[in-house]
Structure to design on (206 residues):
């Protein structure tokens, strides 16, 4: 089964449509104001309204208030939510939507146990741990820390680029891969060639 691809940190329609054209399965929009890839909810929803069918828009939040989350997702049923903070499973479930829970991986973590705490999630996203940084570190973690058997589909993130994504897919065999900084021209702006190369590398026959 081909690996699916999420292109995260989308901030404009041109990058969104180009990624869709090249085969992206999902697009991530960051609603964390401290991020250089933050996008205004009104602008994000305007972009989502113009996406082709079968591409999933993913709304990324970090310990956001219910009001802030509803302000983004309330008027569009297409949104999938990605929780990237310390949200409990009960909080994640409270929006009555499919969701992804991100876990930051470091030595000594029991990823199976951590994932079990979010059994209602559609998938678990594994990202590199960096103290004080909720995500988007641009750093690769040790993929061998991922157990062969996980209770939920795994989305692999953390320092992925067109140069290492094929190796990541071969080694980890994730359900999907997630990239942001690894395909950028500058923070929040995608390099279209890198996006194309990344998607091609992730989806090539293994």
């Amino acid at each position: 089964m081909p690996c699916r691809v999420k292109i995260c940190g989308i901030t404009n329609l041109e990058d969104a449509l180009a990624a869709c054209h090249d085969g992206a399965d999902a697009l991530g929009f960051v609603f964390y104001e401290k991020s250089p890839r933050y996008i205004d909810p009104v602008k994000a929803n305007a972009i989502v309204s113009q996406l082709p069918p079968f591409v999933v828009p993913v709304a990324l939040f970090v310990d956001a208030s219910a009001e802030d989350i509803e302000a983004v997702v309330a008027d569009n049923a297409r949104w999938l939510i990605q929780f990237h903070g310390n949200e409990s499973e009960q909080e994640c479930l409270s929006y009555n939507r499919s969701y992804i829970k991100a876990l930051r991986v470091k030595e000594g973590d029991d990823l199976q146990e951590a994932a079990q705490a979010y059994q209602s999630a559609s998938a678990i996203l594994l990202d590199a741990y960096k103290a004080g940084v909720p995500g988007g570190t641009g750093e690769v973690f040790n993929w061998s820390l991922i157990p062969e058997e996980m209770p939920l589909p795994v989305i692999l993130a953390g320092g992925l680029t067109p140069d290492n994504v094929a190796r990541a897919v071969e080694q980890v065999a994730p359900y999907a891969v997630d990239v942001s900084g690894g395909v950028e021209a500058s923070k929040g702006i995608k390099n279209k060639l890198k996006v194309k190369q990344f998607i091609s590398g992730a989806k090539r026959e293994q």
In short: The chain has a mean pLDDT of 94.
